């Protein structure tokens, strides 16, 4: 499990760290206090898809253009758009099934026009097609400012806390278009499996169908079914179907009626829980990152959701990082997870943005109890 | 602090931490008299909960704007112990601790502790109110009533009466029962101008509050 995360120069974070992390980590705070950015930083350290695709997805989730390769797009990942200060994401903790304490480190630096002129070279891609930076350069470089223009990002993964540069893995990214640039083997930098559930665009049928199919092959779909049943005990079975009317594959629930019920008609909360359950079931031993976890869920179901999350996380050795704006969500997490004897899974952190700098404030279970009883705002 | 109040959010740079909602209303009336509008009164969930709640408050998102804090609590049966209890809460909140009551310790957030009725006397806010009520013709019979009741209980009844440091509370309850609305608490009574805030009994606490 990761015990400490430190983030520098990423989005709104100049420098912030989360220490004493637990199995379930709930991040609260006002808008633009850096909750989602913290999840993003973790998703970059433990990438769940090729880096260019991930960067494009992260910007797309924020409604920011992802197709362009302008200097502005690259700089948008840096604190205050100051790309001269490298992004650093560090995690410390214990690797899976190992007692050894480890550090993982990601450093993201800009690739500038000047770098290209000085002979910056990319590793050869697995397909043998070596991209050249020239393709993304302006035809004429007119002045020194142009030389500083950011043309890409260089990701340096240090997964062994080593001083030997040969131990580091370089992933240069020069385009956010699909299947271009960033040719490092994903497996070599995938230290932990991770899943990222954004608050928007929560339902991705294609990806969920793939996850469910994987579970079906492993005869583990019961794990997802039991989670859905915590929300609606009527569900007897779950089916993944393609029909003539609906060529896209979709989930259907057997609730005892003559016809199966499309899960999409059972409410946003059911789809949200399906996404969470599928992500957890297919991320054994890894990280599940959930943005605005309460999204789509009725408040009275939150305690059940937290109990389910905690049990599944323990069973599958998963560490969860979730964000929320909801006081009900904080209260229900606290009540569901800290009243269980010998269970101390929950950690609650509030992100603050003060004078342009973020900080993370940890609340102990006793402090959350006091805040709830005395009505002190913790968000 | 309580379930019926809205959530406690720090909105002002000067904080007056009091024991509960009755005290909150009382000090609201006093601040109104003093024409001080830049002080936020925050009620703890009770005197024993100051220790628990102050550190949580100090972690609040808005605490960064705070420049001064005064914590007000009753002496009860031991003024020194009451002061030490607040000091412990301040330490737990990572705030500086004053050497003695009614003195500010200067820091980024300056801090003071007020013990009522005063730092070397057992009792409570109500004892201060008794002193401020001395010119009211009904205070003498209500005092006599409680004194007689207490002595009667002690001499003959198995029912325990109020301890000496709680007799001020008993007298103020009895005193307030003589008004047109006999069930007013001291907070509402203060807002109904039962006490004259220009009385010298209030000068020490008012001096502290104006220094916030």
Which protein chains are joined by the largest interface, and how many residues does each one contribute? A-B, 19 and 20 residues
Give the uncertain stretches of chain A in residue-range form: 123-142
Question: What share of the residues of chain B lie within helices?
Answer: 40-55%
Q: Give the termini distance of chain B in whole angstroms.
A: 22 Å
Number of helices of chain B: 8
Overall pLDDT confidence of chain A:
84
What is the level-2 CATH architecture name of the largest domain in chain B? Answer: 3-Layer(aba) Sandwich
Structural Rg of chain A: 22 Å
State the name of the first-level CATH class of the largest domain in chain B: Alpha Beta
The computed structural class of chain A is alpha/beta
Structural class of chain B: alpha/beta
What is the count of structural domains of chain B? Answer: 2
Beta-sheet strand percentage of chain B?
A: 5-15%
| Element order of chain B: H for helix, E for strand | EHEHEHEHHHHH
Strand order of the largest sheet of chain B: 2-1-3-4
- Main beta-sheet strand count, sense and barrel state of chain A: 6 strands, antiparallel
Q: Write down the overall geometry of chain B.
A: globular
Helix content of chain A: 25-40%
Shape of chain A: globular
């Amino acid at each position: 499990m990761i015990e400490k995360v430190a983030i520098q120069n990423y989005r709104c974070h100049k420098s912030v760290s989360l220490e004493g992390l637990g199995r379930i980590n709930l991040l609260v705070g006002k808008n633009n206090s850096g909750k989602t950015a913290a999840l993003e930083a973790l998703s970059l350290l433990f990438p769940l898809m090729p880096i260019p695709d991930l960067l494009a997805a992260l910007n797309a989730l924020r409604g920011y253009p992802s197709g362009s390769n302008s200097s502005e797009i690259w700089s948008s990942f840096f604190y205050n758009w100051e790309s001269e200060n490298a992004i650093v994401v560090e995690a410390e903790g214990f690797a899976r099934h190992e007692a050894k304490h480890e550090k993982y480190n990601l450093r993201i630096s800009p690739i500038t026009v000047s770098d290209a002129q000085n002979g910056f070279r990319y590793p050869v891609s697995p397909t043998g097609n070596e991209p050249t930076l020239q393709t993304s350069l302006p035809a004429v470089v007119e002045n020194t400012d142009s030389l500083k223009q950011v043309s890409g990002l260089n990701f340096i993964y240090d997964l062994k806390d080593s001083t030997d540069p040969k131990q580091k893995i370089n992933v240069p990214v020069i385009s956010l278009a699909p299947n271009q640039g960033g040719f490092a083997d994903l497996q070599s930098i995938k230290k932990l499996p991770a899943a990222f559930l954004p608050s928007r665009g929560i339902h991705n049928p294609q990806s969920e169908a793939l996850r469910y199919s994987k579970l079906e092959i492993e005869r583990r779909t019961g794990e997802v079914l039991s989670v859905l049943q915590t929300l609606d005990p009527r569900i007897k079975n779950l089916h993944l179907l393609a029909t003539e009317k609906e060529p896209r594959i979709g989930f259907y629930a057997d609730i005892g009626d003559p016809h199966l019920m499309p899960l999409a008609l059972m409410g946003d909360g059911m789809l949200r829980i399906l996404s969470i359950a599928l992500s957890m079931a297919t991320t054994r031993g890894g990280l599940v990152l959930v943005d605005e976890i309460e999204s789509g869920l009725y408040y009275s179901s939150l305690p059940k959701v937290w109990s389910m999350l905690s049990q599944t996380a323990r069973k599958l050795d998963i560490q969860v990082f979730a964000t929320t704006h909801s006081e009900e969500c904080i209260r229900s997490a606290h009540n569901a997870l800290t009243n269980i004897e010998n269970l101390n899974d929950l950690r609650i952190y509030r992100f603050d943005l003060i004078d342009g700098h973020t900080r993370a404030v940890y609340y102990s279970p006793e402090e959350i109890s006091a805040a709830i009883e005395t009505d002190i705002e913790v968000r | 602090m309580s379930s019926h109040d809205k959530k406690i959010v720090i909105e002002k740079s000067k904080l007056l931490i009091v024991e509960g909602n009755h005290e909150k209303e009382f000090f609201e009336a006093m601040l109104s008299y003093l024409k001080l509008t830049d002080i936020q009164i925050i009620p703890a969930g009770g005197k024993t909960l100051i220790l628990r709640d102050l550190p949580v408050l100090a972690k609040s998102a808005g605490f960064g704007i705070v420049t001064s804090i005064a914590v007000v609590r009753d002496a009860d049966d031991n003024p020194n112990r009451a002061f030490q209890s607040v000091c412990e809460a301040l330490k737990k909140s990572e705030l500086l601790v004053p050497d003695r009551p009614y003195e500010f310790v200067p820091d980024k957030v300056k801090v003071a502790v007020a013990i009522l009725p005063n730092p070397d006397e057992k009792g409570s806010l109500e004892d201060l109110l008794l002193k401020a009520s001395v010119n009211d013709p009904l205070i003498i019979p209500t005092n006599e009533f409680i004194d007689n009741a207490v002595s009667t209980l002690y001499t003959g009844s198995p029912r325990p009466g109020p301890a000496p440091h709680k007799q001020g509370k008993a007298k103020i309850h009895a005193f307030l029962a003589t008004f047109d609305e006999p069930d007013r608490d001291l907070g509402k009574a203060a807002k109904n101008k039962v006490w004259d805030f220009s009385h010298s009994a209030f000068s020490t606490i008012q001096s502290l509050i104006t220094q916030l």
